[in-house]
Amino acid sequence: MKNKYYPHLASPITIKGVTFKNRIFGAPMSNPELDPECHFREEDIAFHANRGKGGLASCCIGLGIVEAVGRSHTKEVILYDDMSLPGLRRMANEFHKHNCKAVMELAHGGKFGAARSHTAADYFLIGPNDEVNAQGVQVKAMSEEQIYATAEAFGKAAALVKEAGFDMVLIHGGHGWLLEQFSSPYFNKRTDRWGGSLENRMRFSLLVIDKVREAVGPNFPIEFRMSGSELIPEGYGIDEGVEMAKMIDGKVDIIHVSAGIHENNDVFVFTHPSMFVENGVNVKYAAEIKKHVKTPVATLGGINDVDMMEEIIASGKADIVEVARQSLADPYFPEKAFSGNKDDITKCCRCFTCFYNYLTNRNFCCAFNPEIGDELEHKYGFPPTTPKKVVIVGGGPGGMEAAITCAERGHSVTLYEKNSRLGGQILHEQHIPFKKDMYNFIEVLARRVEKAGVEVHLNTEITPEEVEAMGADVVFIAVGSTPIVPPIPGIDNEKVVGLKVLENKEPAVGQKVAILGGGLVGSEVGIYLDMLGKDVTIIEMKDTWAADAYWMHKVAMDQHVRNSDMKILCNTTAKEITDKGILCSGPDGDVLVEADTILLAAGMKANRKVADEFYNTAPRVFEVGDAIRAGRVMEAVKLGHYRALDV
Predict the structure, then answer these.
(1) Which residues fall within 8 angstroms of residue 364, CB to CB, at 6 or more apart?
(2) Which backbone phi and psi does 549 adopt, to 5 degrees?
(3) Strand pairing of 131-132 and 101-107?
(4) DSSP code, position 50
(5) Phi, psi at residue 30, to the nearest 5°?
(6) Average pLDDT over residues 313-339
(7) Could you tell me the sign of the dihedral formed by the alpha carbons of 550, 553, 559, 560, in that order?
(8) Buried/exposed 402-424: b ≥16 CB within 10 Å, e otherwise
(9) pTM check: above 0.90
C-alpha cells in the first residue's frame, strides 16, 4: 500500500536484493570521539542508532578509513584493523533492531590526510602529485604499485564491513578526498595513464569499484559518493560530472551526488549548505545526472522539508534523499511525516552548531535537540517521579523546553509570559528569510507546549510574591535578557531602535541604517537589511566582525558581505549620536556615519536582578536560558530539558 501523506517518499526501494523501507537515507556522519584505539564506544553506537530509530531507511557511518596514511582526523573508524570488527558488529546490530539498514563509508584523505592528525616532521602523505599540502606536509605522488595497493585496501575494508553484518558500503569519491583528487583536473596534474583525460583520471575510481565488488560479491549493494560539480573555476562542472557518472553507471548500485570540495572554504558552505543558500541547492546536480544513467541516484545537501523530499522523488529528480543534520534536529521526522504529523517536525536551521562542537568540543550536539550527545543516557531512561506543581516564568525556548519536559513527566505545569507570544528573542527573526527554520523551531515548541497540556498565561508579568503565593514545588526562572544600551551621548535619539523593529514584515527603518554592534546578531541583521536594499554600515569596537560566530557560519556570512555594498567598520567606537547619524572614532580618526536609523545590537545581558528576586519562591528553583547569561539557543534548550528531568 502507498502512504497517504507521502506516497513516493515512503515507498520502498530494493537494491541488489536489499529492501530499504523508504527513500530517506541517513547520509554519512563521522565521530568526534572514539576509544583510544579508534573503535566504537557505547556512546558512539547509541548516537548513530538514535538516528536510525525514527524511521530512516538506512544510516551511514562516515569516514571509515581504509589505510593508515589516509587518516584525516584523529578519530576515524579504522577499517584496516580487524579489531574494529566487534564494534562494527555491535553497530550493525543496533541499526537492525530499529529496522534500519547499516551502511559504512569507505574513505581515504589522500593529500588531506594530515589535515587534523599527523604532525611528525618526517611524515608524508600520498596523492596524485608530488607537492606540499596546506598543512606543510610532504605529499608523494602514488606509484602504480601504491595505487593498486590502496585499491586493494578499499576492497579489504569493504569485506570487513560486510563480515560485520552491514548491508551496504559507500565509497567516498567526492569532496576532494583521494579518489576525487585523481578524478579532478584541479587536483590531478599527472601525465601518465592515471592523469590527463577524464578516462585516465577516472581509472583509479573504477579500479577501486572493481576491487570492492570483488571483495563483497555481486549481490551486495555499493553506493558511490561523487561531487556532481566541484564548484570552483579550475575544477570540473556538471557536464564532466555527468560523464563521470556515466562511467560508473551499472558498476555501482547507487550514485550519490553531492557537490564541492570539503577543504575549500568558499564551497564548504555548499557542500554542507549554510542557511544563506536555498534549501536543496545541490539537487540540480543529481537531477541532471539522473537523466543520463540507469543506476538509482541519491541527492542531499541541507534538505530539511519533507514536502520538498516528496517532490524530489515524485518528479524524478532523484530516487533517494539523504539527510545528515536533519536527522539530528529531529531523528523521528520520517515517522512524523508518514503518520501525518509534519507540523511537529523540528527542521534543521543549518546553524553549524553541530559542526562547531564536533570540531572543537569533540562531542555530538544540536542547537534544537537537547538529547543529541546524550543518547546513551536517554537509552536507559530516567527514573519515575512524583507529580509536582511547576511554575515557569518566561516563554522563550528554554522556558518552553522546560515546560514540555516537565509536563511529559507528569507534572502540572503553568507558564507565564509577559509578552503576547511565546518565543523570546527568536520572535525578532520571523521575517528574516535565512532564519525561517529558526523561527519554525519556536512555532514547533509552542505547539508542543499546547499538546503537553501546559497552562499558558500570555501578557502576564508575574511577580515573585505572586509565584510564592501559588505554593509551587518547583519554579523555573526563564526571564531572558535585555539589550545592552551603551552610555553614548544621544543614545535616546528617536533614530535609535532595538531589534524588536524586526518583528514587522517591513521593518520601520530608513534607507541608511547604521548598526551599533557587529557581533553575530548585528552582522546577521546587517545582511538581512542589505537583502532588503538598505544602505548598511556596521560599527564594531573589536578588530573583527562576528567574532562570536561559528567559523563555518562566518565563512557563509563573509560570502554575502564580499558580494554586497555593506560597510563594516572594525576597531571603531561610537562617540555620539546626532540627528545626522553616529560620530565614531576609528583607525583613521573621527568619522561621521550618516544614518536615517540606528539599530542597537550591542549585545544582551541577563536579567539578573529580576531572576534573583524569584529565588526561594519554591522549595526548588532552577534558572534556564538567558536568565543565567545571554547565550545561544542550544544552551537554553539543553538546560531547560535536563533541569526539567531533575524534577
Answers:
(1) 32, 47, 328, 354, 357, 358, 372, 373, 375
(2) -85, 150
(3) unpaired
(4) H
(5) -95, -175
(6) 97
(7) negative
(8) bbbbbbbbebbbbbbbebeebbb
(9) yes
